[in-house]
Amino acid sequence: MNDVVLTLNGVEKFYNKGLANEICVLSGAQLNLVPGELVALVAPSGAGKSTLLHIAGLLDEADKGSVEIDGQMLSGKSDRRRTRARREDIGFVYQFHHLLPEFSALENIALPQMANGVSKSDAEVRGRELLNTVGVAHRAKHRPAELSGGEQQRVAFCRALANKPRILLADEPTGNLDPATSDQVFDALMTLVRETGLAALVATHNMELAARMDRVVRLENGVLVDG
Ligand code: ADP
Prior knowledge:
Layout: E1 6-15, E2 23-33, E3 38-42, H1 49-56, E4 64-69, E5 72-73, H2 79-89, E6 90-93, H3 105-115, H4 120-133, H5 149-161, E7 167-171, H6 179-196, E8 199-203, H7 207-212, E9 215-220, E10 223-226
Helix pairs in contact: 3-4, 3-5, 5-6
Bound molecules: adenosine-5'-diphosphate.
């Protein structure tokens, strides 16, 4: 299993630890993601999907267990090391697009690349390629407020992929969209995963979308089960 890009090993997470209102959200979650696979993370609201994605994305630390990227142990490492891994290897998409309102779609995708030292012209070339892949190239110069909800989410995917991460973590990325738009946005995500060889973990309530992914993992009583 040399090509595993993300490993969660026995991840445990408690909130309010040691207090009367202690909650055990994760109690030994185990996961391996390989490049090019699109995995659905399914569970009811409150089961711990966001908590799991935050830990996998190095935004939060597990209380026990570990997170590895490309076999590199990142649990317990310095904030600097974890931040670098997050910036280089992980892209995030949320239910709301969180695009910068005063910048165009293209600028929203170019800016994170320029922050990483890419020239403006190269960043815009990549931005246009990504927008083209998800069918929003004709809206490159438009600000987020001038885009439809589905277009905004497709741009958010492009921004998440701007710096060529190996892993995409998405938290209900179509949760705010009507069914037809949701299908369209999901198609765009699928195309991006297939074209880039990304490993994607996508939390969703939508069982039809989940069924279209390569596999489904369910979060049940704090552990991940296949199916
Ligand atoms: P999901 O994404 O599946 O809706 P979450 O990961 O957001 O679930 O939350 C899992 C559980 O942990 C919920 O019961 C939630 O109330 C609780 N929780 C989440 N964040 C915190 C926090 N910072 N402090 C205390 N409890 C939290």
